[in-house]
Specification:
With 293 residues, the chain is an alpha+beta fold. The chain contains four helices and eleven strands.
């Protein structure tokens, strides 16, 4: 039998001492994990902003080679599913990779037909690291049971995480007061494709591209049926997609690229939650379209 210098048996930790140590470790972990999580989130935001800056450079290269015009609003290509020629919007497809095989190919361009494809180099410049998948909740009030049980990220589904300000997305809302003006459906200048770079009056405020939290996004929930939904990618650790934005926390943060090449994180919560179907009112920080003079 081993004895210590005092002639007594060596003793281990008591139960109380072990519990104290575990409690201390738990407290330290609780203090440190939010810091690590916040640092990780800021790192993703920084990467996202870098992506958008590169997209801004590509857009200007495109304009230089196309009579100072911004990328077009749509491109006609062969639809693999229906085997017919179909014009598809560039709203989600300025660049990036091929959409998910199957239904996604009906609405989204193949990579080689996207306006910025020849300038992008690495396709992942169109991938936001905070672009999450969207999981339906069959029994939730906010999510009808005929939704898909799960949905991949926009990067995996459409082949791009970013939206081009090519047109205003304003779905029909019969309950809106006052009603949407007819000009919303076909505004004189719904975005950038109809004007040249020299015609932009406020390049430091005119949105060129952004992430979906800035405005509603269409989701196919049944054959031939598209309904809007709203998402929160950044600074939100919980639920990321909402059919009703008014029940969401004020976390509709979106990295935003402006025509002058500047990128900043903007909080669109007030615009989205005040008028979800038409969050395009001009503010001191941004404008979505430029009315015809």
């Amino acid at each position: 039998m081993r004895l210590n210098h005092s002639g007594r048996k060596p003793r281990g930790f008591t139960l109380i001492e072990l519990l104290v140590v575990i409690a201390i470790i738990a407290v330290l972990a609780g203090l440190l994990l939010p810091t690590f999580g916040g640092a990780l989130g800021r790192g993703k935001e920084t990467k996202c902003m870098s992506n958008l800056r590169q997209i801004g450079v590509m857009t200007m290269l495109y304009a230089d080679e196309n009579s100072d015009r911004f990328p077009v609003s749509g491109v006609t290509e062969l639809c693999p599913v229906k085997n017919i020629m179909r014009r598809k919007p560039t709203l989600f497809t300025l660049g990036g990779k091929n959409p998910k095989p199957g239904h996604a190919t009906i609405n989204f361009l193949q990579a080689t037909n996207r306006p910025l494809h020849q300038y992008q180099g690495n396709e992942k410049v169109f991938h936001c690291p905070s672009d999450k998948g969207h999981k339906a909740r069959p029994h939730g009030i906010d999510c009808p049971p005929y939704h898909e049980t799960s949905k991949p990220s926009l990067w995996d589904y459409a082949g791009s995480s970013y939206m081009y300000n090519s047109a205003l997305y304003a779905p029909v809302d019969n309950n809106r007061v006052p009603p949407l003006p007819p000009v919303v459906k076909t505004p004189p200048r719904p975005g950038l494709p109809r004007i040249t770079t020299d015609e932009v009056e406020y390049p430091d405020r005119f949105i060129l591209a952004h992430e979906p939290p800035a405005r509603p996004v269409g989701r196919v929930i049944a054959p031939f049926t598209v309904e809007p939904w709203w998402c929160q990618w950044h600074r939100n650790r919980g639920r990321v997609d909402f059919r009703d934005p008014t029940i969401a926390p004020d976390l509709f943060f979106s990295n935003t690229l402006f025509v002058d090449g500047r990128v900043e994180m903007n909080n669109f919560s007030k615009s989205v939650k005040t008028d979800p179907y038409y969050p395009y009112e001009e503010t001191l920080k941004w404008i979505w379209y430029q009315p015809r003079n």
